[in-house]
Design a protein that fits this description.
alpha/beta; TIM Barrel; 2 domains; eight-stranded parallel beta barrel; 8 strands; about 45% helix; globular
Length: about 350
């Protein structure tokens, strides 16, 4: 069984360009990636300024992307993070939410995700307040599929450290009370899980009372800790036998749109064969053989050593090495070496 794959543009930092998003959809549509969820943390009109309408130019660009997805046979969705709406869900907030949902419906969305992630969660009655919002959304949205990201979307205690201790029984309450037709995101044992196996998914399914909708945080490389690295290696640790146990498998990609395609192509192979796919094969498909050979040679520098440990002389040599290519992937390597995607804690908190 092969699960529905998709892209979740859900990372912090510099977002992708509109043309790059469309090209990404086209490149992966024939490799099992059948949905695209637009949810960049940098879009203020989906997060801290969610109650305000997107500027007309942004609405036009979103509609164009939705149309492109549909032309490629790919579902298009939007992830709305109504920032701390659960703190005061009064009549004015309901009206604002209704206006935002109408705006998103006008785009022709297939999927709508309501994202409660990365917000304070140590509050009494958190699950009940979120359930009220979810019910309100379900009554109003025209999207064919509704997905919810809980405040605590993994067992990882790092969420409790950053956003407060999770309320007792929080996930059990959501699982019991959310309409079974509504999907729930889950990232695995950790925020960025190295392994996701059938035993874990089975246990989580019992709590959520449905198959989890997998939000896979690989090859994402946002934030202060990960932005100095490029995650290019093939997917590993995703057991093919989880396929019938999950609702779908969404991938949160890296900040580098072209380089993201390399590991993302390998997920299809992993599910098909049950074995780790070839980096060389995927990289060659994305960049061509000569550039793929160089990437393989430098893979450990990019993914293991990282910017902080690469010397200035090494960086200069790498710049010269990749400047010989006009391919977008080579341009992304050079921009990364120059620190274009470095991301601070202060920038993270602002988004």
């Amino acid at each position: 069984m092969f699960p529905e794959l998709g892209t979740i543009e859900g990372f912090y930092g510099i977002p992708w360009e509109w043309e790059a998003r469309a090209a990404h959809v086209s490149a992966l549509a024939s490799h099992g990636y059948r949905f695209y969820l637009y949810a960049p943390k940098s879009d203020p009109f989906l997060r801290r300024r969610w109650s305000e309408p997107h500027p007309q130019a942004e609405q036009d660009a979103l509609k164009k992307l939705a149309d492109h997805c549909h032309a490629e046979g790919v579902r298009f969705g939007v992830g709305l993070s109504p920032y701390e709406l659960y703190l005061d869900f009064d009549s004015a907030a309901r009206d604002a939410l209704a206006r935002k949902l109408a705006e998103l419906d006008a785009l022709g969305i297939d999927d709508l995700a309501i994202l409660f992630d990365d917000m304070r969660g140590d509050l009494p009655g958190l699950a009940e307040k979120q359930l009220e919002i979810i019910a309100c959304v379900a009554e109003r949205t025209k999207a064919g599929r509704l997905i919810v990201c809980p405040s605590y979307y993994t067992d990882d205690p790092v969420l409790d450290r950053f956003f407060g201790q999770r309320p007792e029984g929080y996930l059990d309450t959501l699982g019991k009370e959310i309409d079974p037709a509504i999907e729930i995101f889950w990232t695995g044992p950790l925020v960025c899980s190295r392994e996701i196996d059938a035993a874990h998914i089975t246990r989580v399914s019992e709590t959520l009372q449905r198959k989890p909708f997998l939000w896979d945080n690989y090859p994402v490389n946002d934030g202060p800790r990960m932005s100095p690295f490029l995650h290019l290696r093939p997917f590993t640790g995703r057991a093919p036998d989880i396929a019938p146990l999950i609702a779908a498998h969404g991938v949160n990609p890296a900040s580098q749109v072209m380089l993201s395609r390399i590991p993302m192509l390998t997920l299809e192979k992993l599910y098909e064969s049950g074995k780790e796919a070839s980096f060389a094969e995927a990289a060659t498909q994305v960049t061509g053989r000569e550039l793929a050979t160089l990437l393989a040679e430098d893979l450990s520098l990019f993914q293991d050593k990282g910017l902080e440990a690469i010397s200035e002389s090494e960086k200069a040599a790498l710049r010269n090495r990749y400047a010989a290519f006009s391919h977008p992937a080579a341009s992304e390597i050079i921009l990364w070496l120059d620190g274009y995607w470095r991301f601070t804690q202060e920038e993270l908190m602002a988004q």
